[in-house]
């Protein structure tokens, strides 16, 4: 199969992100610190993109610096919202809601004028997304509705969606390698001012909490690199994003299988809650496939 490698890479990226969310959630539960975890995660992503400028055939331009900084700002706020959502809610719920990023991409490309209007399929996908969120937020008797977590995850999806909508447009006038590197470099730099906000000492070993944080950071950096390979070096962006959107299902799978071993609170969720979340994840995935 000609595109087996990029398809496998995108699927692996989705699985890596789902597992990263579970480890990051456990790290937060054990006291790794929200802003501390966010900073280490952002720096891990930036490290993986260090080779990109060396792969570019162009020098950095003012346009690259401007566009890359804007994308980095959006990505940073997306990451911040994601970690705040993980602190307040379950990993499988947050990861699945963030899959609605593709819907936001469709809306933003029209809003900023890249396309004239929205296809009817997008509205159907939006309805499916609303149904999915309702299922994800439907609690059992001993679970409260995670409104804050859902809201923060939606904000994260919107930030990442706008980023994805702008990248192809900016790439027309900027070298993609330099543009992406400038984006993650901006994210890394923006992480420095939040270090004083970290809970406790920034540089210290917190035992099991930091073990989970280390694995979460490595996995999230790895998935970013895998997706850049799947999309940047192969002409299958639509198919790659569909496979990557399975990260919500992967997160739910890992939470219910190894979650008990890790000790995350989500692993004790009732079967009815797990079933509704699985159904919600599949509805959201169907909506993403519809607009792809």
Q: What shape does the CA trace take?
A: globular
Mean pLDDT: 82
Helical content (DSSP H or I, runs of 4+): over 70%
Strand content: under 5%
Note the main sheet: none
Note down, in words, how this protein is organized:
The protein has 292 residues and is an all-alpha fold. It has one domain (4-291). It has 14 helices and no strands. α2 packs parallel to α10 and α5 (91-98) packs antiparallel against α12 (247-257). The longest helix has 27 residues, at 62-88. It is globular, with a radius of gyration of 18 Å. The model has no long low-confidence stretch (mean pLDDT 82).
Question: What are the defining features of this structure?
Answer:
292 residues, 14 helices, globular
Layout: helices, strands, pairs:
Elements: H1 4-29, H2 34-48, H3 52-55, H4 62-88, H5 91-98, H6 101-111, H7 120-137, H8 147-171, H9 176-191, H10 208-232, H11 237-244, H12 247-257, H13 259-262, H14 271-291
Helix pairs in contact: 1-10, 1-11, 1-12, 2-4, 2-9, 2-10, 4-8, 4-9, 5-8, 5-12, 5-14, 6-8, 7-14, 12-14
Provide a short characterization of the protein structure.
With 292 residues, the protein is an all-alpha fold.
